[in-house]
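Need residues for this backbone.
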């Protein structure tokens, strides 16, 4: 769901001929007319599309003005909009669209009457030409391959050589995102429909009590990639697991309406970690559980909040957090079901919009904690060997999460590869081959 509006449908309205006017060297793509409901319950029609910089200079302070016409050629509405990210939030005025780059735009239309029928939309842009920035190409990082430059926000490993990933707004349900499948060996990728999309029908929403579009979009409904069941939250933020058709519900935690569910991180065999916070830099509460209805941790109301988004062991029994305990600030290992903490290591602590720690067990049962940390030279991948109690810097990372951005990562089934994703202006998807990096000994 975009900020302040709920997406009801996105389609090119039947019989509508949409025109996009151009000015200067910006090319405006054909808009899609999207019906939305705002927070006041009022209908809003928005023209959405992409804008391409075809010039040799950069453009800042980009704005777009739309004029809507009916079939007779009469003006029936107008609108003013901006370049936006995948969630529909306007980019800052000093954002520069570089030569050859493409970004989204959104223009809310104000129709002059409720009976108006839009037949054509003309769009004119205004922008300020600035000197093009010619950034140096990123340094080649051993073992790191870029898969996409889009805003990648979800990912599921299919097996060690194949994965599927979603592009779009991180707040949207998986059924509203664009999915692609990628093979690490061939480098080939193709658009797909997520295999669980067919399960999400009106009957399921009735079964779950999520008929209201607002509550449905806020439900965080997610199917376990490696198990049968699903997890979701109700309008009262009660967390429930259920069968794929919504039957055999099991309540995990009730009445968590005083906190915001930000994400669900899937572990092994249907186990997961759910995490809550309000804004970047806020403390994070969390819990671990299984889709079979087994609670593995303390309640999110009782846990010591983490300074970062926590990571969990594959079985959900241990959680890695960052905290200050007894005057010692750093990374700690927590027994999920008990208030017991073991200090692990001291390292820079990022905000909660950075990837959560990865807890890896190798074939011999040795434990490692992989963490993305900030530094003056950019993001770094570090590894803590629990056996030798040593911390190792493995590689620079190609992410730069800003205050409005997020980054995530997922470890492959055999722990050979990390898939790293980011949204925002520095978005993308990368694979990191751990065997090509320094050893974490």
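Answer:
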């Amino acid at each position: 769901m975009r900020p302040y509006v709920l997406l009801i449908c996105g389609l090119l309205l039947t019989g509508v001929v949409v025109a996009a006017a151009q000015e200067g060297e910006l090319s405006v793509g054909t808009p899609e007319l999207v019906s939305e409901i705002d927070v006041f319950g009022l209908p809003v029609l928005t023209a959405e599309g992409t804008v391409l910089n075809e010039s040799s200079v950069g453009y800042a302070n980009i704005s777009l003005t739309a004029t809507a016409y009916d079939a007779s050629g009469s003006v029936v509405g107008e609108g003013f909009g901006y370049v936006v990210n995948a969630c529909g939030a306007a980019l800052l005025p000093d954002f520069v669209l570089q030569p050859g780059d493409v970004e989204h735009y959104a223009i809310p239309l104000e129709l002059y009457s409720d009976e108006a029928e839009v037949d054509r939309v003309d769009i004119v842009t205004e922008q300020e030409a600035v000197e093009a920035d010619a950034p140096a190409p990123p340094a080649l990082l051993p073992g790191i391959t870029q898969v996409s430059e889009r805003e990648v926000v979800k990912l599921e490993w299919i097996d060690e050589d194949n994965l599927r990933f979603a592009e779009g707004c991180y707040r949207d349900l998986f059924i509203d995102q664009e999915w692609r499948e990628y093979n690490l060996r061939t480098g080939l990728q193709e658009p797909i429909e997520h295999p669980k999309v067919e399960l999400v029908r009106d009957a399921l929403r009735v079964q779950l009590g999520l008929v209201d579009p607002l509550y449905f979009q806020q439900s965080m409904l997610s199917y376990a990639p490696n198990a049968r069941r699903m997890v979701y939250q109700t309008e009262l933020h009660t967390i429930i697991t259920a069968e794929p058709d919504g039957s055999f519900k099991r309540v995990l935690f009730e009445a968590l309406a005083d906190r915001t569910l930000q994400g669900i991180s899937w572990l092994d065999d249907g186990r997961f970690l759910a995490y809550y916070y309000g804004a970047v830099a806020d403390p994070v509460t969390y819990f671990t559980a299984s889709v079979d209805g087994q609670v593995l941790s303390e309640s999110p109301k009782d846990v010591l909040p983490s300074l970062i988004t926590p990571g969990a062991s594959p079985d959900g029994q241990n959680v890695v957090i960052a905290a200050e305990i007894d005057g010692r600030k750093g990374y700690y290992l927590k027994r999920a079901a008990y208030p017991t903490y073991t200090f692990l290591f001291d390292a820079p602590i990022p905000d909660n919009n950075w990837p959560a720690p990865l807890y890896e067990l190798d074939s011999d049962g040795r434990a490692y904690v992989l963490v993305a940390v900030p530094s003056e030279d950019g993001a770094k991948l570090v590894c803590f060997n629990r056996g030798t109690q040593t911390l190792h810097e493995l590689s620079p990372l190609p992410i730069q999460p800003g205050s409005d951005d997020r980054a995530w990562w997922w470890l492959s089934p055999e722990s050979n590869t990390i898939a790293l994703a980011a949204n925002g202006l520095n978005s993308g998807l990368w694979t990191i081959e751990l065997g090509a990096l320094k050893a974490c000994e």
